[in-house]
């Protein structure tokens, strides 16, 4: 097998592309952000986002660099089910669609997912939820930052540390300038770039190699990749489904959009985004099956996508994959920065430290938090500590434990605080145990099953009779110790 | 249970078709929202 040097773009070309995108995103961030005068404008884009931008932002945020880099990795490791399992991540978006309507009607003045947990389950469950949410958000940020450095290094030879630093600086700057409005606006352009790039790569892979040869070569070298009964892959399928649902149900990235979309837009936007997201891991992932046909030696599984693109399309392929993954990274990084800073601002600063802070103060603190988040992410990303896939799957244990407390809390009066607290705590711990004892592909599955059992048993043993009107908190009523 | 090349091609082509339609629909929606002044 040939060793392909993946840096098919020279460093100067890489820097030029980075410079062009930096100027565009930062200018747009400033342009859209200059109208954000109030806190709602900065945090929630004025709570008036329409269908086109709403769909694109949900879609772009869910197409992370992990979709464009890890989907081919999973196709390489788990074959057909790797792609199909990853595409089941769309179920999370689709299932969240009806919840958005419910969230908007129950918590009309909310800012974050933490607001709901605090009002529904009280202070201690809220704090545990914040811990889970922060672990997830920081983990996702690290995974994005690392992916940025890896990609830039692989394609241009620019040092991992420099590439990762530049991507973080760009995203922090335009999120700082424009808040959620800048995030959503740039997401639309990034969505179009991602889709067009993936389409070009897929079409060229099909025309250069063809399904017959690809199938024949995989069958010769790694037939298990084409096996529909590959046990680990089937476990992965269910695990990924629950991981995706957990990520979306709990994360403030998705809740902040539920609050930001115009009345009547949220459900439709999430549903449509789910439908158009589902095929992306298949289209981005199947090109990894051409590794045998191309006689490629892939040194790191998460580099298979860029390497195939570079081998097949040379300079053009490298530029396309660079733009696609750069857009995927930016669209998720900016969303995470905005949503995580909202969570820290609203639930930690306003909820625990300064409940009487003015809008002006909160806007200033929001910007400080965005910068600090960028710095923390940068520091943790400096050493490359794990493969992208493993890092993400580890977080599945955390997020899957929140699915049932949130879903039951939104629809069932019987769901109670003790059950929700124990479900999140024991679900997470059991998921972590499963991760280390069995494998990454069952962490979310075990966590969700344990969490579900606890929520159901607690509703049976100690049913609550929650009054939904308690969720309709006016903004000026907020205090950190409101309920217990 | 090994899948055939036909299965692989149908699966990928179906996914690719939806992916090709997606940006077209998004741009149409954007124009519609923009005309109505409802982008955000």
Unreliable spans of chain B:
none
The chain pair forming the largest interface, with residue counts per chain, is: A-B, 48 and 29 residues
Biggest sheet features of chain A = none
The 3D shape of chain B can be described as rod-shaped
**Cα shape of chain A:** globular
End-to-end separation of chain A in angstroms reads 63 Å
Oligomer: heterodimer
CATH architecture term of chain A? Up-down Bundle
Task: Work out the helicity level of chain A.
Answer: over 70%
Largest sheet of chain B: none
Secondary structural class of chain A: mainly alpha
Radius of gyration of CA atoms of chain B, rounded to a whole number: 17 Å
**Beta-strand content of chain A:** under 5%
Helix coverage percent of residues of chain B?
A: over 70%
CATH class of chain A: Mainly Alpha
Distance between the termini of chain B: 50 Å
Number of strands of chain B: 0
Note down, in words, how this protein is organized:
The complex is a heterodimer of chains A (484) and B (40). Chain A is mainly α and 484 residues long. Chain A has one domain: Up-down Bundle (Sodium/glucose cotransporter), CATH 1.20.1730.10. Chain A has 21 helices and no strands. Chain A has helices at 11-33, 39-44, 51-62, 65-78, 80-87, 90-106, 113-121, 123-156, 160-208, 211-221, 231-250, 252-260, 266-277, 280-285, 291-294, 304-353, 359-381, 388-399, 403-411, 417-437, 443-461. In chain A, helix 3 (51-62) crosses helix 9 and helix 8 packs parallel to helix 20 (417-437). The longest helix of chain A has 50 residues, at 304-353. The radius of gyration of chain A is 22 Å and the shape is globular. Chain A starts with 10 loop residues before the first helix and ends in a 23-residue tail after the last helix. The relative contact order of chain A is 0.18. The model of chain A is unreliable at 1-5 and 479-484 (pLDDT under 50). Chain B has 40 residues and is an all-alpha fold. Chain B has a domain at 10-35. Chain B has one helix spanning 5-36. The longest helix of chain B has 32 residues, at 5-36. Chain B starts with a helix and ends with a helix. The relative contact order of chain B is 0.09. The interface between A and B is large, with 48 and 29 residues.
